Amino acid sequence: MLLPGVPEETKLLDGPIDTSANVDTDDRLGGPAQTERRYLPVWLPKDLHVPFENYKRHLLEEYGQLMNHISAGTSKDKETAMRWQALRPIADVLEELNVLLQTDQEMDRLISDVLKSGGDAEEEEELVELIRVERDQRAAHRCALERKLYGLLIPPDPEALSSGACMELVAGAGGREAGLFARDLLDMYRSLAIARGWQFTVVQETTMVGDEATGAGSSDSPLLKARVEIVGEGQEESLDAEGEAEPDCRALGAFGQLRWESGVHRVQRIPVTSKQNKIHTSTVAISVLPLTEEIHVELSENELKWDYFRASGAGGQHVNRTDSAVRLTHLPTGIVVACQQERSQHMNKRMAYEMLIEKLRDIQYQSQFNAVDTLRRSHFGHRDRSEKIRTYNFPQDRITDHRLSRTWNGVARFMRQAVGLAEALQALYAREKIARLRQLLVDQNNIIPNNGNQAH
């Protein structure tokens, strides 16, 4: 099985790697009757073969040492137990994969011995067919284990599982043609949302009329900007007609799948109103952020300092006779609120607590807004043509994603049907996971980065 979206040059043959110089082959088994193999995942780029082997060996050695310490009772600290628990599922999957590999080796030796014995040809064919069926079954099991291993090594970013995305589209260079392209992109994402079963809500839309911006206009008016909320859960992996799992990115929520759309999108086409039949280049900037959730502030009693005093001011004799006024200090931030409006200390305490909660919530909202605004501005850049992440070339009927160095033919298929867009999102997802795997191996000191020596 091949990991969907991985570039062709990084894919390996489906099956263990042959490391012997000379192997006997039997075409009836569909490949070499290998005598020596080592397990490597099919999604692993070639330059990571040796680093992955080193990482796997060190991981299993560490797991074995931890297992011995725990079994012998020589280590009872919490950190050791947690590390062992973290490594256990990875070690279990690697062990299962090694068992499948050993079974393949045993079957290869068996068929080799039978073929060399010069027995009955019909019996040989029956045995070969039986082994082929069993090998296919093991291959399917191996595919499932490899996906599990991939998820254990590179777990999804929790934020990527977010079901909600806030997308903002802003027309850039190109005037009205940029506005028309923004409308086309909005329709493209609507098509993807329909295909995915997501909720797609346009919460703000500003259209162009002449050279001025107005509120929402007709469905074909050029867009100056639009803000959309897209909500949808990830889908569980299922098997397609060939027995392979659906692309991994479908397991993510709407934000997890759409986050790579942030950036400048460039279009090259002849405007409908052009009299010179000349190709124009326009841009639209897109920002995709997770939908912000309601901020909940929870306080523990040891974070609070309560002071009580007698209220002052109007209110009759009662305000000066009891310590009904309250001063509340939030120790971590130093924020102080006071309340003496009510005659009851209990009521003033409740009001002071609510006032403190509101102040802390405002601070968190402001911090969240600043972080989101900074990220949003980075997505938009200068909206210049040179900042493009993807080019939509209508005259040549092709779309190029410059991050992937990959081209799709058929603009309608990519945009109106959103099929090509789904393929691009999957390829970007696979690219990110390979990059994270590479970084994992770098962090483990098992690989020299790309500018150094690599294994081939």
From TrEMBL:
Gene3D superfamilies in UniProt: 3.30.160.20, 3.30.70.1660, 6.10.140.1950
SMART domains per record: PCRF
Domain Prokaryotic-type class I peptide chain release factors: 310-326
MF terms in GO: translation release factor activity
GO cellular component term, pick one: cytoplasm
Keywords on record: Methylation, Protein biosynthesis
Pfam families membership: PCRF, RF-1
Region (Disordered): 1-31
Keyword Protein biosynthesis applies: yes
Coiled coil regions in record: none
Alphabetical list of InterPro entries matching this protein: PCRF, Pep_chain_release_fac_I, Pep_chain_release_fac_I_sf, Prokaryotic/Mito_RF
Family listed: Belongs to the prokaryotic/mitochondrial release factor family.
Record-linked PANTHER family: LD18447P
Protein name per its UniProtKB record: RF_PROK_I domain-containing protein
Organism of provenance: Echinostoma caproni
